[in-house]
Amino acid sequence: MSKALLAALASAGEDRPDALTVAGRPCSREELLGAAGAVAARIAGAPVVAVRAEATLETVVAVVGGLLAGVPVVPLPPDSGPAERDHILRDSGATLLLTGVGGAGGDAGPGAGGQDSRGGGRGGPGVTVMPVDAAERADWAKPEPDEAATAFILYTSGTTGAPKGALISRRAVAAGLDGLADAWAWTPDDTLAHGLPLFHVHGLVLGVLGALRVGSRLVHTGRPRPEAYAAAGGTLYFGVPTVWHRVAGDPAAARALRGARLLVSGSAPLPTPVFRELAELTGHQVVERYGMTETLITVATRADGERRPGHVGVPLPGVRTRIVAEPGAEIGELEVTGPTLFDGYLNRPEATAASYAADGWFRTGDIAAIGPDGTHRIVGRASTDMIKSGGYRIGAGEVENALLDHPAVREAAVVGAPHEDLGQEIVAYVVADGVGEAELIDFVAGHLSAHKRPRKVRFLEALPRNAMGKPQKRLLPPA
Ligand code: MCA
Ligand code: AMP
Predict the structure, then answer these.
(1) What is the phi/psi pair of residue 476, to 5°?
(2) Per-residue pLDDT tens for 141-172?
(3) Given the CA of residue 442, which atom of ligand 1 is nearest to it?
(4) Residue 201 CA: which ligand 1 atom is closest?
């Protein structure tokens, strides 16, 4: 059995005044524990707690406070529009919303902080907004909850409908982080640097809890900009491929990473040209790892393993993988099992059941191949309705539904088109009268969140359909 999820926070290594720095604000581990203890004391006993997850110190305090108190944490994207925010709060049953100090005041608007904030601080009916003060202190002496307890409810898009809440246990988080520490020889001597959003597995679970559990320093740059990475002084850097593409496009920033120990990419495929350019500029071959919200990270290139572009490495300790393919084929759907798997989707028994094979392995929906040496290669996704843009997972159906909520839109079909920087960009094809591209883009950004907005809108007389009347996305004109 592994040690408790936060056990290392109080004990790992020597403390220092800048054990973590978030968007320019330093904090020691002792200060973090004190501030999080104050949060824990205020929320203890709540069934779940939502956290408006701006890239701020308050978000880290709020999340650690929730974990100390054993209250499942629901990170809310800070720029969530009403449709997304109301769905997440209602579906999760959150009655408390923790925000930065500036986000206080019932139906208050945006709060202080690094990341975009256009209303995620509003609670809505039945939700009390509770400001978090990183300067507050309280001792929290209660033992950590059982490792089977839910740590997070992470909302993630499917191909259709609204996002589903993935139930992530404390055990899964601990197992996943210990596996990555092993794979990357990640120790208290490291400084982890990144600027990823704090409402997804990559930035929050790996990028914050990873550092807290291992005992390494953390520098969160607020935003994942190349010049901020260059200035962060990390030994270990995390980024999505879009971030690495931008770093490669800024040679001075890239060269500043030469002194690092390990550069890690994940959340989407890292293009081979970016891998090569970074190797040239930084002297590092980027390590890729693969995972999902539902499974956490399951496969990773080890620090001492072979680094090949397009390859994501080998299963973490305790994880098993298999390819379900047609007879004779080497490429097929990747299925995984092991200690990092989620406990199902909240309130969605049917979706939960559908995500598992008959023998309990999780069906990732990713198409992959496993080489003779056990190295995994992700080839694509089974469904084109699951889009990855800038490392964000976006369901085509959710964006289509948002567009159909606009009174001028009669039909909508959304696809992910190849994009050099974002991997895929969201393109919306609509049948509509009296509305322009910019208005529809803003409409989706305002209803859902900015990263779910289409980057292009194409207007059609009618969507291509088959004899049954079903839209045929393959027959849409090029973006
Ligand atoms: C532009 N903006 C708008 C609009 N147009 N806002 C509202 N309405 C509009 N019409 C603003 C945005 O608010 C933002 O403002 C700015 O324009 C840029 O927008 P954004 O789309 O965010 O920027 P980008 O440059 O396209 O973003 C690239 C990015 C981002 C920074 C790389 O995509 C990102 O952070 N990706 C990380 C995703 C991630 O962490 N995924 C992990 C999932 P402003 O700049 O002022 O805010 S976990 C996972 O996948 C698994 C487990 C795994 O394997 O890791
Ligand atoms: P999310 O649920 O946002 O965590 O997204 C999970 C999805 O991201 C996976 O199902 C994959 O499609 C994709 N993904 C994550 N890491 C990689 C990677 N290294 N290479 C290719 N795809 C990846």
Answers:
(1) -70, 150
(2) 999 999 999 999 999 998 888 999 999 999 99
(3) 10
(4) 48
User: What is the torsion angle, in degrees rounded to the nearest 10, for the CA atoms of residue 203, residue 453, residue 114 and residue 393?
Assistant: 0
Pocket test for ligand 1, best of 406, 451, 453 (most atoms within 8 A of CB): 451
Residue burial 395-417, b: 16+ Cβ < 10 Å; e: rest:
bbbbbbbbbeebeebebbbbbbb
Nearest residue to 342 via CA among 333, 355, 332: 355
The pair of structure tokens assigned to 93 is 């049953």
Residues with CB under 6 A from ligand 1: 116, 196-197, 200-203, 224, 240, 242-243, 266-267, 291-293, 390-393, 441-442, 445, 450-451, 453
Atom of ligand 1 nearest to the CA of 240: 37
Phi-psi region of 193 (alpha: psi -120 to 50; beta: other; left: phi over 0): beta
Q: What is the pTM of this model?
A: 0.95
How far apart CA 124 and CA 249 sit, in angstroms, is 42
* Range 386-475: architecture per CATH: 2-Layer Sandwich (3.30)
Region(s) of the chain under CATH 3.40.50.12780: 7-178
Residue type, 385: D
Q: What dihedral angle (degrees, nearest 10) is formed by the CA atoms of 18, 20, 26, 28?
A: -60
Task: Indicate where the chain has its CATH 3.30.300.30 domain(s).
Answer: 386-475
* Averaged pLDDT of the chain: 93
Backbone angles phi, psi at 463, to 5 degrees: -80, 145
* Segment 366-392, tens digit of pLDDT: 999 999 999 999 999 989 999 999 999
Ligand 2 site residues, Cβ closer than 6 angstroms: 156, 201, 266-269, 288, 290-293, 312, 364, 366, 378, 381, 388, 393
Backbone angles phi, psi at 403, to 5 degrees: -65, -40
Q: Is 471 exposed, middle or buried (0-12, 13-18, 19+ CB in 10 A)?
A: middle
Model confidence at 72, in pLDDT bands (50, 70, 90)? very high
> What is the rounded CA–CA span in Å between residue 260 and residue 283?
9
Cα dist from 321 to 183, 308, 317, 334, 380, whole Å: 17, 20, 11, 7, 16
AA identity, residue 239: G
Please state which CATH number belongs to domain 7-178.
3.40.50.12780
Query: What's the length of the chain?
Result: 479
The alpha carbon of 432 and the centre of ligand 2 are apart by a number of angstroms equal to 33
